[in-house]
Design goal:
mainly alpha
């Protein structure tokens, strides 16, 4: 699995400390919202050329780490 820590950072001075892709102001939340709303990885990369394929992989790995062992589905 990709080491998301090499791609995702937080800084209280950037987007109020939300996790962002290093070197950008693109938050993990923003990218994940695009993917969740049906954008393909190619569409995200085409629309945000500073992003790389590994940045998208890092978003997935970060999200997995956030939910691992912590979230349980309830109906």
């Amino acid at each position: 699995m990709i080491e998301w820590q090499n791609h995702i950072v937080t800084d209280d001075k950037v987007l109020v400390g939300k996790p962002v892709i290093k070197g950008t102001r693109l938050s993990v939340e923003f990218i994940f919202e695009r993917l969740a709303s049906g954008w393909s990885e190619k569409e995200v990369l085409d629309n945000y050329p500073r992003l790389k394929q590994d940045d998208i992989k890092a978003v997935h790995a970060f999200t997995y780490e956030c939910f691992k062992d912590g979230l349980r589905y309830r109906r």
